[in-house]
Amino acid sequence: MTNRAYTNNIISVIMPTFRRPDGLARALESLMKQHAPDHDIEIVIADNSPEATARKYVSNFAKTSTHKVVYVHAEIPGVSNARNAAVAASTGRYIAWLDDDQEAADNWIFEMMATARDCGAAMVFCPTYAILEAKTSSDTQYVKFFSRLADHVRGPIEEFFGCGNSLMDCSKFILPDPVFDPLANETGGEDDLLFTQIQKQGVITAWTPDTHTQEYIPAGRTNPEYVRKRALAWGQGPSEIARDENDNVALVKWMLIGTLQMTAYGIPMLVTKLIDHPSHISWLRKFWEGAGKVFWSSNLRPKLYGASSPLSVANKT
């Protein structure tokens, strides 16, 4: 069941990139170690900078790569634009996602494919461990904030996680058109919308703790302001999905949950800020995730990606 042409024995690893040359090099190097029995791997790189900053590096990398490399210039900045351009250029039945600030374990593709096969899953997720590139007084809290972990055994799960540690079997569902919502270009949340649409088709989602990715967190993100924006965006997700589905009961439920979270976490957030306690980051996250469920309208979405990213200028080369 699919609306996308593909080749059965190909795994397309999609990597959007935006002015992050060092991260891109590290991520691509980790893909050279990937393998899966009876499958070929193609790497599809969507360069989302208007000036095509990654073109030369990718061209040189492709000359010695052990896998096929496809370069796409998605010149209009936006996370959905980059992902959509890469999907259009991909040819695999399976799509694996790795971001340009991540690094895959050596058995990443092998284990994700094995889990998809053993569980009959349309989507597979694994842990992502955050690595901070700058030290802070709240390292433990920041690592917890940026990591994507779950206390699950290998097998089917109900929830889903971010794009950058996932694999999809496109034979098991119909992709929306466009695959990722362009309205999420600068704000993110495009992956949550897609995964929600896929799960509604009655597919199996699975988790494996037997492999992982690592995500490198730059200094520009380990600060309370970035945590506030990111947590607000995460909190807005459930309410926005309920709104898009015209599910007013779910929307009211999420807004009530958000109100309770703000009430419960507001005082600890303020107190820990006043005494400069490392746990402030944790309370800040909880409060603003609650706020996102209440204040979910599009004009309140923080802009975290593409040309609006707070790191876009710093990463420009």
Summarize the structure.
This protein has 317 residues and is an alpha/beta fold. It has nine helices and eleven strands.
Describe what this molecule looks like in 3D.
The protein is of the alpha/beta class and 317 residues long. Helices cover 39% and strands 18% of the residues. The protein has nine helices and eleven strands. The strands form two sheets. It has an eight-stranded mixed β-sheet. Strand 2, helix 2 (55-64) and strand 3 (68-73) form a beta-alpha-beta unit. Helix 8 packs antiparallel against helix 9 (280-294). Mean pLDDT is 93; it is low at 310-317.
Q: Classify the helix fraction into a percent range.
A: 25-40%
CATH class of the largest domain: Alpha Beta
Order of helices and strands: EHEHEHEEHEEHEEHEEHHH
* Main β-sheet, spatial strand arrangement: 3-2-1-4-9-6-10-8
The count of DSSP E runs of length 2 or more, i.e. the number of strands, is 11
CATH superfamily of the largest domain, please? Spore Coat Polysaccharide Biosynthesis Protein SpsA, Chain A
What is the CA-based Rg, rounded?
19 Å
The CATH architecture of the largest domain comes to: Alpha-Beta Complex
Instruction: Tell me the span between the first and last alpha carbons.
Output: 43 Å
Approximately what portion of the residues adopt beta-strand conformation?
15-25%
Uncertain runs: 310-317
What is the residue-mean pLDDT, rounded to a whole number? 93
- For this structure, the CATH topology of the largest domain is Spore Coat Polysaccharide Biosynthesis Protein SpsA, Chain A
Structural class: alpha/beta
From the spread of the alpha carbons, the general shape counts as globular
User: How many domains?
Assistant: 2
Largest sheet: 8 strands, mixed
The tally of helices reads 9
